[in-house]
Amino acid sequence: MKIKYVLTAIGVCALFVVNIISLYFSDAIVNKEKYSVMGVDVSHYQGVIDWEAIAEQGVGFAFIKATEGSGHVDKYSAINLDNVKDTDIYHSAYHFFSFDSAGESQAENYIEAVDKESINLPPVVDIEFYGDKFKNQPSSAETTEILKPLLERLENYYGKKPIIYTTNFVYRKYIKDEFADYPLWIRNVNSEPSFIDWTFWQYSDKGRLYGYYGTEKCIDLNVYNGSMDEFKKQFE
Predict the structure, then answer these.
(1) Is 10 a residue whose pLDDT tops 70?
(2) Scanning 20, 51, 150, 153, which has its CA 20 to 30 A from the CA of 107?
(3) What is the pLDDT of residues 35-86, one digit of tens each?
(4) For the residues of the chain, what is the DSSP string, one character each?
(5) What is the rounded CA–CA span in Å between residue 111 and residue 87?
(6) Whole-angstrom distance, CA of residue 114 vs CA of residue 77
């Protein structure tokens, strides 16, 4: 019986240690000397944002959610896009891609919500699984049929090739072959992306800054793959 209790105690302690280690390493470790240009991405979850306060914390760029699918507009996108212009933060707006509506109508939703003069970085399309899409994955052909006209319409209107945000799995399934010439913003909160030519890297969804007042206490953190001089050369 004593051996049983000892083994149980060891198991509980081991589980505790694993949980602590998992929590500690839940975000990728970023070399801030190598990747010195820091950014954030936000949505209505962060509420109305004090962009001066965000800038004071070393943030150099920001992506603000604007639209989703063919009809949804983020309720704080307009005010956040208006306010961020008063800072030196480079900024753009992102569109959450829908597998369920036409690319042309999704593009028009974004264009109606995001004035050309309100962003100084390329438009962004966020493509990731939602709902049951991981379980019932659309084919590459179906996705390309929607995504291609969306990207082309945005590029024609804003005069800049859109940035694609995605996960490793979605990148390999839908983006790698058909849309490799678009700037890539990759999500990987476990480690630095490897074997991928990325421009932006979302390395954490558990960041803590001050200056936002929404229901979400955390904020997504990102870095640019290069120096600020290289950033300006690429996007100015």
Answers:
(1) no
(2) 51
(3) 999 999 999 999 999 999 999 999 999 999 999 999 999 999 999 999 999 9
(4) -HHHHHHHHHHHHHHHHHHHHHHHTSS----TTTS--EEEEE-GGG-SB-HHHHHHTTEEEEEEEEEETTTEE-TTHHHHHHHHTTSS-EEEEEEE--TTS-HHHHHHHHHHHS-GGG-SS--EEEE---TTTTTSPPPHHHHHHHHHHHHHHHHHHHSSPPEEEEEHHHIIIIITTTSTTS-EEEE-SSS---SS--SEEEEEEEE--SSB-SS---EEEEEESS-HHHHHHHH-
(5) 23
(6) 9
Q: Report the pLDDT value the prediction gives residue 27, as an integer from 0 to 100.
A: 63
Beta strands at 38-42 and 219-224: parallel, antiparallel or unpaired: antiparallel
CA 159, CA 173: separation in Å to the nearest integer?
27
pLDDT at 24: 34
Cα 51 from Cα 232, distance rounded (Å) = 20
- Tell the residue number behind the tokens 């904020």, with chain if given: 219
**Residue 93 is encoded by which pair of tokens?**
């707006």
pLDDT tens-digit profile of 209-226? 999 999 999 999 999 999
Q: Are strands 184-187 and 124-127 parallel, antiparallel or unpaired?
A: unpaired
